[in-house]
């Protein structure tokens, strides 16, 4: 069982930022600023995803409820966090174009790192929104989401809901019954659409770049 302090999103984000920053300094020293930026961002994303998933996934419904009520999240802070993650993904793409190492091997490495960085940021957004949905469900008046089961939802259900919105830009087999959660899902879908375009563009650039230097 993880320590109570490590179960909070803010602490997980702080740890990820610190490790990502150290990774940036280390990568920059050995391979340059551009690749260092990519490496630091990607490392921070991986750390956050590992901490968050390993903490939330095993929780049952009662543990989920207890955890989110302890989070004491603020809607504005949540949106700022998501916007920050989105910005970091865009920085990853810019860093690729500004810091191409030259040569096929160097280009491929940086292009793959960019894809991993953008995908990692995409996953971080959905992980954050999973906590957001759980928080509003257990602190709201009527839950706001019908998962089609009499059992109370655990974090696995909210992670499923979040990734469903992220991949389909809408709610699939769950029913949203709260206007507040509909607003959250709308913002989530819009951000996910932007990420989809960025990931597609990065993938196209990777393929065309490899073909161009072959």
From TrEMBL:
Residues making up the signal peptide according to the UniProt record: none
Q: Which InterPro entries match?
A: DUF1345 (IPR009781)
Which residue ranges does UniProt annotate as crossing the membrane?
12-31, 37-59, 80-100, 106-125, 189-213
Q: Which UniProt keywords apply?
A: Membrane, Transmembrane, Transmembrane helix
Q: Does the keyword Zinc-finger apply?
A: no
Query: How is this protein named in the record?
Result: Putative membrane protein
Species, as recorded: Corynebacterium glyciniphilum AJ 3170
